[in-house]
Design goal:
about 80 residues; mainly alpha
Length: about 80
């Protein structure tokens, strides 16, 4: 896998983890307006736990894929 693809995977993975953390710590009405699930009119103080956990899981998977793709392949004898 080319090096730039691994870099893109790591960057996307880190961004996904950051988005997940934001979903966990910010109430629904305090989310940035470009986030899916943003409530502009005081629709409760809940958090988007499912979206947070999904974003964190996707981020971790992307970083793992980038790390596995970096490992050198062993040659068969």
């Amino acid at each position: 896998m080319p090096g730039f693809v691994r870099v893109v995977l790591v960057v996307l993975g880190v961004l996904a983890v950051i988005v997940g953390v934001i979903y966990l710590v910010e109430p629904v009405h305090s989310l940035p307006s470009f986030f899916p699930g943003h409530a502009s009119g005081g629709q409760g103080d809940g958090h988007h736990h499912f979206r947070a956990y999904a974003a964190i899981a996707v981020g971790i998977v992307l970083v793992i894929v980038a790390a596995v793709a970096r490992r050198p392949r062993r040659e068969a004898y």
